[in-house]
Design brief:
The complex is a heterodimer of chains A (303) and B (300).
Chain A (H helix, E strand, L loop, with lengths): L1 H6 L13 H28 L16 H7 L2 H33 L6 H13 L2 H11 L6 H8 L11 H29 L3 H9 L4 H12 L1 H16 L3 H6 L11 H11 L3 H31 L1
Helix pairs in contact in A: 2-14, 4-5, 4-8, 4-11, 5-8, 6-8, 8-11, 11-14, 13-14
Chain B lengths: L1 H4 L6 H10 L6 H32 L21 H9 L2 H32 L3 H15 L6 H10 L6 H9 L2 H13 L2 H9 L4 H12 L1 H17 L2 H6 L8 H10 L5 H28 L9
Helix pairs in contact in B: 3-15, 4-15, 5-8, 5-9, 5-12, 12-15, 14-15
Classes of the chains: A mainly alpha (303), B mainly alpha (300).
Chain lengths: 303, 300
């Protein structure tokens, strides 16, 4: 069949537009799902965000009240600030760790890389709920392994659970630990695609490994870095199960995050309209983040 | 570094080439470079592996030993009592069956729908397809977690509340899956499609008889990813299900954490049980995941 293809000397346009039914049949299932579970919820969510809908019965349009209340709601601000802080901490940590590990795993010098790769991969198989349980077990104040080791070494037990910032710190570590495998996979694929000849030329010119990393590896994997940062930012902004299982947003409500806030106002107190407004604020932030990153990425590519 | 590490800088590249071909051998320079990299790699590997190891080892300790000081790494007298208690107390067998049903059906549907859509996006040129492609892109910006309340209402109004379909159907369309197949089919030469057309094959039979079989590696990779996402899903199943007989494993685990006084013995056992299926799937299909040249746009 491939032989025939080469026989066709009249090269047809690479893709033809005369086919309409076949592609429509092929995408039909996803179009239906997209309309039902994406477009429809998005539209009614936007509509509800201007109402006082509680999920049942009649509702009234209240204009921008929900949004105004939202910006006067200190609980929402706290959740937003905590979400942004978590994102700003976990994304760079994840980036550095996964890039470092990907380089080590690919490096010819490191022995046992294929075994180590499996070790790095295992956290990714564990569900966020169990990751939360695991780190809670590790960082228990009175019983955890970490505090036990610290006390054995002569230090004082650290209040991992009762101090809000330390509590967030544990979730950041857990989040980075959990997310490394996935970013690592993307980086490994990207690093392997960098032509070896670049490195050979550079080492002829006397560039050391660090210089090679800065001048060759980093620029070559820039598109992947962009994707890794973007995906990790989106995922961090909507993190919830990890917090739920690790400290339940605690101590108290100090580590309640945006999705938890949406969940609580929407489903615990039945303020669907209010929760929808919060959802749209989150969506606008996510879009802003994505657009900023896209612009930065373009700038860097054009330079 | 190459020049400083090797005694004769002039032949730096040849030494490098040699040590690359035989990583274990090489001169003193190769060894000196291997030590720091290997050490760093294994320090990190220990940091990543130890939490899981400690967790799993602890799960074999009898409930009374969990907090007895001094803490010991290996259980004195290993027992499965935590596992047994978890399995009995939390109706785990039912949760396992439920989760398996949901994961398998969602995965099959996801792979099928993504393969069709990815092929259409890669091999047909049509402005509606472009619009739909942008739509799929948008789903990565506005994930379902962000639209919990309205999406819940839609699924409820469709009559899918408290049913497995309510968990399965919204999860079938994934941008990642469509991207993976699109990228793959872009690398398949158009001439292959053209030749089949000249042979008189109809569009859909070209897809089913030529394209589907050659995309098997992508199918497997996406199947593993999809299975992992759905096995580990928490918030959506929690919202969708109120009948305890339909709960999934993750809801079962979280319900053990929810109690005021955590029974760690049961929780550790239950957590390790919940990890086993994915570890098994991973071990069987490891090489597909590890070698996956996963392309841009991945998300769940």
């Amino acid at each position: 069949m491939t032989k025939r293809a080469s026989d066709v000397s009249v090269s047809p346009p690479r893709r033809r537009s005369k086919y309409t039914i076949a592609p429509l049949v092929l995408i039909a299932a996803n179009v239906v799902l997209f309309s039902l579970f994406f477009v429809w919820p998005a539209v009614i969510g936007l509509v509800y965000s201007f109402t006082n809908y509680t999920g049942v019965g009649a509702f009234q349009f209240v204009g921008l009240d929900n949004y105004q209340n939202l910006f006067g709601d200190s609980v929402f601000y706290d959740a937003l600030a905590r979400t942004l802080l978590y994102t700003v901490l976990v994304v760079p940590l994840n980036f550095v760790l996964s890039l470092l590990i990907a380089n080590l795993v690919v490096s010819k010098q490191a022995k046992g890389a294929s075994v180590a790769r499996v070790v790095f991969f295992i956290p990714w198989l564990i569900s966020p709920i169990v990751v939360g349980v695991l780190w809670r077990w590790l960082f228990g104040e009175n019983f955890g392994l970490i505090n036990y080791v610290i006390e054995k070494l002569g230090g004082n037990a650290i209040p991992w659970q009762s101090n809000a910032d330390l509590s967030l710190g544990v979730v950041v570590m857990a989040g980075a630990w959990w997310g490394t495998a996935f970013s690592m996979l993307l980086f490994i694929a990207a690093i392997k695609n960098v032509p070896v000849s670049y490195y050979e030329a550079a080492s002829l010119d006397g560039a050391g490994p660090w210089r090679q990393f800065i001048s060759i590896t980093l620029p070559s994997i820039a598109p992947t870095s962009f994707i890794v940062i973007l995906l990790n930012t989106i995922n961090a902004m909507k993190e919830y199960p990890l917090f739920l299982a690790l400290n339940n947003g605690g101590p108290g409500t100090s580590n309640n995050l945006l999705v938890q806030y949406i969940y609580q106002t929407g489903f615990k107190t039945g303020q669907i309209g209010y929760a929808s407004a919060a959802s749209f604020v989150l969506m606008l932030i996510l879009m802003a983040v994505a657009i900023i990153q896209l612009i930065v990425n373009r700038r860097m590519e054009n330079r | 570094m190459t020049t400083t590490d090797t005694p004769r800088p002039v032949k730096a590249d040849s030494v490098r080439a040699l040590s690359k071909r035989r990583p274990r051998g090489g001169g003193g320079g190769g060894l000196r470079r291997a030590v720091p990299a290997t050490t760093l790699l294994w320090i990190l590997a220990c940091l990543y592996g130890l939490p899981v190891l400690w967790f799993v080892l602890s799960s074999f300790k009898p409930a009374g030993d969990l907090f007895s000081l001094p803490l010991t790494v290996l259980p004195h007298d290993p027992t499965l009592s935590g596992y047994k208690a978890a399995w009995d107390s939390a109706n785990f067998s039912q949760y396992f069956i439920n989760t398996t049903i949901v994961c398998v059906i969602t995965t099959i549907l996801t792979v099928g729908a993504s393969c069709c859509t990815g092929y259409a996006l890669a091999k047909y040129d049509n402005k509606w397809l472009k619009v739909f492609f942008i739509g799929i892109l948008a789903t990565t910006m506005l994930p379902s977690e962000v639209m919990l309340a309205p999406e819940f209402l839609v699924v409820r109004d469709l009559g899918l509340y408290n049913s497995f379909s309510g968990i399965i159907l919204p999860a079938v369309l994934t941008a990642t899956g469509c991207f993976m197949f699109r990228q793959f089919f872009l690398t398949v030469p158009d001439e292959l499609v053209e030749a089949a057309r000249i042979d008189g094959a109809r569009e859909l039979s070209i897809f089913l008889r030529i394209m589907v079989p050659i995309s098997r590696p992508i199918m497997l990779t996406l199947a593993i990813l999809s299975f992992q996402w759905r096995w580990n899903d928490y918030i959506w199943p929690l919202l969708m299900l109120n009948d305890p007989d339909k709960f999934t494993v993750q809801i079962g685990i979280q319900s053990l954490v929810g109690a005021q006084n955590i029974n760690w013995s049961v929780l550790l056992g239950g957590s390790v049980i919940s990890m086993i299926p994915l570890i098994l799937v991973f071990l069987v299909f490891q090489r597909y995941v590890m070698s996956a040249d996963i392309n841009a746009g991945l998300k769940d």
